[in-house]
């Protein structure tokens, strides 16, 4: 396990926690909004919860309000890097 969440890991989490199948390429190249991808607030909350369980640390409060995968990854990875 690394201290950074990759686009590939986020794609896996989206499938597991939100039931949305998307390729890492779609997330990385186009940076669509979560709403465009079909991930609602409960799905995003599930992803945040999974990461909190995995890393044993709370994720930033703003993570569950992220509008895009890139914004989400920036927030979460920043928190993981600083240990916040």
Automatic annotation (TrEMBL):
Q: PROSITE patterns given for it?
A: CARRIER (PS50075), PHOSPHOPANTETHEINE (PS00012)
Residues in Carrier domain copies: 4-84
Pfam families hit by this protein:
PP-binding (PF00550)
Keywords attached to this entry = Phosphopantetheine, Phosphoprotein
Question: What is the name of this protein?
Answer: Acyl carrier protein
Species source reads Streptomyces coacervatus
């Amino acid at each position: 396990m690394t201290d950074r969440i990759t686009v590939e890991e986020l794609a896996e989490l989206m499938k597991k926690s939100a039931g949305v199948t998307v390729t890492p390429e779609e997330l990385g190249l186009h940076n669509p909004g979560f709403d465009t991808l079909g991930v609602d607030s409960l799905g995003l909350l599930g992803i945040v919860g999974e990461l909190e369980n995995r890393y044993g640390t709370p994720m930033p409060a703003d993570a569950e309000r992220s509008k895009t995968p890139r914004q989400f990854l920036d927030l979460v990875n920043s928190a993981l890097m600083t240990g916040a």
